[in-house]
């Protein structure tokens, strides 16, 4: 199997796991504070990956430690915005499609950060995606829900994180890189929880089950696969493979919560998908 094919497999599996992670997280935050859940989820995943690291990985990690910590900070900021949006949204599927716009924000972030000009196809895809976003979110005129704004902000930050991480994913092995990134997010969330949240006296066993599933499957395994895939392909290619995530999330939310979208929202989702697929088709042509 070629490196490109291995990257594709890793990233498709990443999208499947990520879609399940939306459900895991929504169930977990229903029974415990948001920041406490995020902190526990990411610290458990970080420690798990750290145990699996090889001793020889440490020198490379230390060599690039400033960049690794910065990438962890971007991931933490992204996840803080995302988890609050998940906790208050009425539609996980809608949120997933808004987040999928990060794949179109990646070329803009790469332009500013890596001095890589967007392909011509990007400028055709972007207006189509914006029209889709409008149909998906603006149901009552020019008004946005708080969860929609949080998802949009998270999408922008995710694009920055994606580009920044792609720059170093080829230099640092995936396991230690993922471990440090997740650890940064977990520590930031725990500190916030200590100062702004109050814990319930008891958390039932089912909630702890969702926390563990989120930590080991939707975080540890997911981020290791994502970084492994990113290390074998370009940032743009990796980002666009992950357009499958909102589709899988809509299916998962429909099965688990019975979520449905209006005709206008469905058209908006189709426009966003069309923009993303067109862009990928043109850059790979």
Notes on the structure:
It is found in: Cell membrane. It is a multi-pass membrane protein. InterPro entries: Diverse_Substrate_Transporter, EamA_dom, EmrE-like. This protein is an all-alpha fold and 285 residues long. It has one domain. The chain has 13 helices and no strands. It starts with a helix and ends with a helix. The mean pLDDT is 84.
Helix content: over 70%
The total domain count is: 1
Low-confidence stretches: none
Report the structural category.
mainly alpha
Q: Helix segment count?
A: 13
Organism: Affinibrenneria salicis
Subcellular location: Cell membrane
InterPro entries: Diverse_Substrate_Transporter, EamA_dom, EmrE-like
Transmembrane segments: 7-24, 30-52, 64-84, 96-114, 121-140, 146-164, 176-195, 207-225, 237-257, 263-281
């Amino acid at each position: 199997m070629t490196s490109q094919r291995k990257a594709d497999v890793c990233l498709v599996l990443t999208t499947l796991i990520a879609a399940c992670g939306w459900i895991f997280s929504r169930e977990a935050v229903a029974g415990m504070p948001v920041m406490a859940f995020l902190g526990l989820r990411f610290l458990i995943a970080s420690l798990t990956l750290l145990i699996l690291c090889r001793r020889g990985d440490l020198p490379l990690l230390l060599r690039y430690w400033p960049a690794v910590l910065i990438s962890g900070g971007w991931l933490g900021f992204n996840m803080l915005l995302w988890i609050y949006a998940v906790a208050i949204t009425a539609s996980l599927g809608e949120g997933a499609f808004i987040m999928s716009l990060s794949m179109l924000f990646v070329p803009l972030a790469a332009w500013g950060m890596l001095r890589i000009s967007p392909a011509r196809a990007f400028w055709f895809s972007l207006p189509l995606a914006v029209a889709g976003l409008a149909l998906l979110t603006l149901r009552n005129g020019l008004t946005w829900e708080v969860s929609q704004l949080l998802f949009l902000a998270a999408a922008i930050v995710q694009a920055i994180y994606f580009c920044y991480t792609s720059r170093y994913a080829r230099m640092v092995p995936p396991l230690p890189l993922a471990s440090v990134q997740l650890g940064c997010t977990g520590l930031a969330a725990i500190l916030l929880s200590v100062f702004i949240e109050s814990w319930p006296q008891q958390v039932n066993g089912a909630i702890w089950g969702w926390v563990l599933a989120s930590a080991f499957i939707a975080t540890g395994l997911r981020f290791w696969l994502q970084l492994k895939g990113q290390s074998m392909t370009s940032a743009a290619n990796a980002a666009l493979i992950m357009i499958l995530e909102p589709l899988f999330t809509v299916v998962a939310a429909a099965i688990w919560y019975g979520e449905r979208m209006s005709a206008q929202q469905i058209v908006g989702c189709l426009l966003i998908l069309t923009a993303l697929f067109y862009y990928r088709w043109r850059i790979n042509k």
